[in-house]
Amino acid sequence: MEMKKVLKYAMEIGECMLVSGAGVSRVEDTISRICKAYGAKEANVFSITSSIVTTIEDEKGEILTQTKRIRSYKTDFTKLDELNQLSRYMCKELPEEEEVKRKISEIKREKSSFLQRKFLHQRSLQQHGLHFMEVVLQKGS
What we know:
By secondary structure, this protein is an alpha+beta fold. It has helices spanning about 5-20, 25-35, 75-95, 95-110, 115-140, and strands spanning about 40-50, 50-55, 65-70. The chain is about 65% helix and about 15% strand. A hairpin with a 5-residue loop joins strand 2 (about 50-55) and strand 3 (about 65-70). The longest helix has 28 residues, at about 115-140. The protein is globular.
């Protein structure tokens, strides 16, 4: 994939992550890793809660910069998990543009209410289970 497209999709993933509740350092790291996996010699990413700026240098020494302004947020841990999985997949397998474009579109379109409730329910059960185990262990000592 050409570096201009890599930057475009890495920034789109970073934007979706930030909107979905990711921390700025996680967004910066993800964008940087994707760009470097596809051959960027250098990737400088700066993110705050309302903006992402990325400058990369390709193997020919060409400099590319893109900025995204973030205007709204909607915490969605399911979407965030899917974006993390996609970024790891991209760094490992280097899929072509059409696949990346399709996967990003699928993630953006998904309504995660059922999956998010399931995730939060599982997390709640885990936390209560750990609390229960702590109580049992304390009584046993």
